[in-house]
Amino acid sequence: MAYEIDKPEEQWRAELTPQEYHVLREAGTERAFTGEYTDSKTVGVYACRACGAELFRSETKFESHCGWPSFYDPADSSAVELLEDRSHGMARTEVRCTRCGSHLGHVFSGEGYPTPTDQRYCINSISLRLSPEES
């Protein structure tokens, strides 16, 4: 897929920290319970750390106790793309930013969480940047 923001890998490497690059550009995963936003209750907007596109809002964040920030719905259905991921010997659905193609995490359905969508967007904190709501 062609993305609105398309940079050579050398430029991504220069703009992102090694950890950010590993997760966002190489589909890595940060360790569970280590992310900056795992337990955050701050009201605001979560944007893609690589390109700044709005991805999720705090109103859809919920406690899943899985070790990563969890959301039940993206801010806009066109903000993320879902791709089949058969890596690591399992079938999962990868979540990417539609603006720059960066890896965000995975989405799971039917786990029984009491949310309106019965979905859990399990997103790496390092893929996000939270802009707190002005009060």
Automatic annotation (TrEMBL):
Catalysis performed (reactions): L-methionyl-[protein] + [thioredoxin]-disulfide + H2O = L-methionyl-(R)-S-oxide-[protein] + [thioredoxin]-dithiol
EC number: 1.8.4.12
GO function terms (MF aspect): peptide-methionine (R)-S-oxide reductase activity
Statement: the UniProt record of this protein carries the keyword Oxidoreductase: yes
Matching Gene3D superfamilies: Peptide methionine sulfoxide reductase
Segments passing through the bilayer: none
Keywords: Oxidoreductase
Ranges for domain MsrB: 9-133
Protein name listed in UniProt: peptide-methionine (R)-S-oxide reductase
Organism whose genome encodes this protein: Streptomyces endocoffeicus
Lineage, uppermost ranks: Bacteria, Bacillati, Actinomycetota, Actinomycetes, Kitasatosporales
